[in-house]
Amino acid sequence: MTRTLITGGLVITAADEVHADVLIEHGRVVALAAPGTQEWAADRVIDASQKYVIPGGVDAHTHMELPFGGTFASDTFETGTRAAAWGGTTTIVDFAVQAKSEPLRAGLDAWMAKADGNCAVDYAFHMIMSDVNESTLREMPKLVELGVSSFKLFMAYPGVFYSDDGQILRAMQVAGDTGGLIMMHAENGIAIDVLVEQALARGETDPRYHGEVRKALLEAEATHRAIQLARVAGSPLYVVHVSAQEAVAELAAARDMGLPVFGETCPQYLFLSTDNLAEPDFEGAKYVCSTPLRPKEHQAPLWRGLRTNDLQVVSTDHCPFCFVGQKELGRGDFSKIPNDLPGVENRMDLLHQAVVDGHISRRRWIEIACATPARMFGLYPQKGTIAPGSDADVVIYDPHATQVLSAETHHMNVDYSAYEGRTITGQVETVLSRGELVVDQRKYTGHAGHGAFVPRGLCQYLG
């Protein structure tokens, strides 16, 4: 095992910024010391002068190989985790999916098989419950014991993933008893389906209507309802991909009451808007995701929520579908456009741009992208920080480099970039995963099979 020394960089964690040398051995961080104060011998020395030394990113919301709308997400675990590494993310938490009438364990085993031997960086799983019943409720504690300690439920997608309020309440009660965390897709899918039907009947078929029917008030209503059900159940709640200022207000009100309620947003809601959904010639289909993109005025409340900690995590909801042949399934009917977009490679860079633009501090960047997702999902301090004993998931980040985001140069297996042509200040230079070089001076040196499954503990913000 190679002994690695990183010298001369500014080490940034959620807690601290300090110039330090970092010693790595046996896949872990061994020690930090003031620059030049220790005569450490090493097989490999990485000069990080004028650079940041940051923890590898933890993307707690990805969907590799997800079946959706008659097709599959275009990134496999191999291509998706390679792209994650290029973007400075060294751990993903993906979603195993329970098929209707199947046990939870069957879904988990299927996703474990997809990932096994194929990942360039480490991975863990949440469990999507698409059929809440007495049998699957009994399985929940067993999955927690296996290190799959969070369960996603949907108030949207009737007939596919949807759970009614009674099912949600029951799952929350089990989670409250076992220490599991319920993750909620909070949109009123029953009402949205009515609005979809009415829009299509009026001949409103273009991608922009996807955003118009999935109304912000129906996200806020579902968020409010999920919070109240969690209160009744005595359960914590994590609301995924929050996009609307009205939903942020519901989370803020709950947190002001001291409730264990948490919220996640995604780069697309911070940097894109309904202007993208309205792009002509069906180009808007590239930006169809759920929850949908909102008008630009929602961005400022999202940034404010990240600063005030009413939102705690930025994940990607990475679930790419190619424009040609996949997004095009919805030509003439926006409701048939596969939902979601690519982003696992762009998250760390976009959030550094937010530092440059003054939205957040450097430490908050690391907090929302590395440390908090690791704590939220029982991975800290193994992941999400640079400290003695932590996994040596370390990124050398050049804050002065500039790059132009483009499908021509990205490594995600998808034929467009949601951020095409956007100039970003800052770029990942070198990435270590458990001490192994995965990206070395902008050259990919990783390989499928290096990434390992990481069993997770319980949410560290509870109890």
UniProtKB/TrEMBL annotation:
Keywords: Hydrolase, Metal-binding. CDD domains: D-HYD. Its cofactor is Zn(2+). Residues 52-438 form the Amidohydrolase-related domain. It is an enzyme of class 3 (hydrolase). Belongs to the metallo-dependent hydrolases superfamily. Hydantoinase/dihydropyrimidinase family. NCBIfam families: D-hydantoinase. This is Dihydropyrimidinase. It comes from Streptomyces omiyaensis.
